[in-house]
Design brief:
The chain has helices spanning about 190-195, 200-215; strands at about 5-20, 20-35, 40-50, 55-60, 75-85, 90-100, 100-110, 115-125, 130-140, 145-155, 160-170, 175-185. The protein is mainly β and about 220 residues long. α1 (about 190-195) packs across α2 (about 200-215). The radius of gyration is 18 Å and the shape is globular. The termini are far apart. The relative contact order is 0.12.
């Protein structure tokens, strides 16, 4: 597989990019970016948000992934390292339903007073495996920063596995930081309610999974 090197300079507005294969991506500028992830993709992303600029990233699975999660042998690895300058703002939302192997890492470094919010929501089909790492680093010179990260996983079946690892590394105590993670299965009462309204098992799980991802 050919190793790719990509550079993306954003200038505001809505932007889209599909990642496939393996390689490195450098992102600069500001705006909203939707990343579409193809099966068997492995990318390292290096980003920077300049002073008083804002970057928003969301991820989704590409249609080639199968629409409902792809195959159990599919693998996606996405490692993102990002630096925030004075007054910069970064927001990230990953909402994915997968059947294969997922390896996500987001590392945000606040170099000066800035803000970040990381949200990861996963639905794992039975047999899927995921490891999710979110690391927020507050530099000693980044007093006044605001940062949060949230990781939630819904397991569909007894063989789905999720390891959620939110981490805070704070070198300045004049900040507001929080993090949290949850892993759970489908609420049986909600499942019974939908089934009593005429949906079968698969349809009921699909409704609850979609609601979870969109919450």
């Amino acid at each position: 597989m050919t190793h790719q090197t990509k550079t993306l300079e954003l200038s505001g507005g809505e932007n889209t990019l599909t990642l496939f294969g393996e390689g490195e991506l450098s992102i600069t500028g500001h705006g909203h970016l939707t990343l579409s992830l193809s099966p068997n993709t492995s990318f390292t992303i290096i980003s920077s948000v300049a002073a008083n600029q804002s970057l928003n990233i969301e991820c989704k699975l590409s249609p080639s992934y199968g629409g409902v999660g792809g195959g159990f042998n599919d693998h996606i690895k996405l490692h993102h390292h990002l630096a925030l300058a004075l007054g910069a703002t970064y927001t990230e939302r990953l909402a994915l339903k997968v059947s294969g192997h997922l390896d996500l890492l987001t590392e945000v470094t606040h170099l000066a007073k800035s803000s970040s919010k990381l949200t990861t929501k996963l639905v794992l089909n039975d047999g899927a495996q995921a490891i999710i790492r979110g690391t927020i680093i507050i530099d000693a010179n980044a007093g006044g920063s605001i940062a949060s990260e949230r990781q939630d996983a819904l397991l569909l079946g007894t063989k789905a596995e999720a390891r959620l690892l939110p981490v805070l590394q704070v070198a300045n105590h004049d900040v507001s930081c929080k993090h949290g993670a949850t892993v759970g299965h489908v609420d049986q009462n909600a499942l019974f309610y939908l089934q009593s309204r005429g949906l079968d098992d698969a349809g009921s799980e699909q409704v609850l999974a979609d609601a979870f991802l969109n919450s």
